[in-house]
Structures are given as structure tokens and as C-alpha cells.
Amino acid sequence: MTSRQERRKNDSKKSGEKSQTNWMMWGGAAVVVIAVVIVAFVALQPAEETGPIEESTLVTGGSYIGDPNAPVTLVEFGDFQ
Looking at the record, which segments are called Disordered (predicted)? Predict the structure, then answer.
């Protein structure tokens, strides 16, 4: 059997490991809370207002598909050499 001193030594080792684990757990929780607060702060900021968007002109002489008055226009330039 183990002596009383050995049991006390083992108990003190276990409690030291336990307190270190508790500090690590609380530290990790604090980091997560701070990260959530920062993300929420950034996400809830009002968007910056931008000026009006300039409409561009289409290049003439190309081939077109679809409605020329569509709200979105996709232009592709390719060089097949």
C-alpha cells in the first residue's frame, strides 16, 4: 500500500493539473467570447455609402445573346491564338 505522504503528493499533482486545465479552459472561453464580440461589432457596422454606379457602353461589332435591355450584361473577351 502507499503511504500517506505518497497519496498527498499524488493528490497535489492531480489538483495542480486540474487547476492548469481550468485556467486553459477559461482562457479559451475568453478568447472565443472576444472573437464573437469583434465579429458582431464588424458585422453590425453600417455599410459605407458609395456614389452612383456609372453605366458602361458595350463594344460594338460583337455577337449578342439575350435581351439587350437586361439589367446585367456579361462581356467576354477571348484570344484563341
Answer: 1-20
- Which of the pair, 76 or 71, is modelled with greater confidence? 71
Residue 58 contacts residue 75 (beta carbons within 8 Å):
yes
Q: What is the pLDDT of residues 43-71, one digit of tens each?
A: 898 888 777 877 777 666 667 778 878 88
* Domain locations in the chain as residue ranges: 1-46
